[in-house]
Amino acid sequence: MREPKTPRIPRRLTPAGKVERHIRHDGKYLSLEYGADTLSMDDPDGVEDVEFDRCRFTQTVFSGLVLHRAGLADCAFSDADLANLRAFNSRMFNVQITNARMTGMQLAESGLRDVLVEGCRADLTGFRFAHLRDVVFRDCNLTEATFQSAEMTGVRFENCRLGGAQFSGAEMRTVRFRGCDLRGVAGLDSFRGAIVASGDAMSLLDAFAAELGITIED
Question: Per the confidence metrics, is the pTM higher than 0.85?
Answer without folding.
Answer: yes
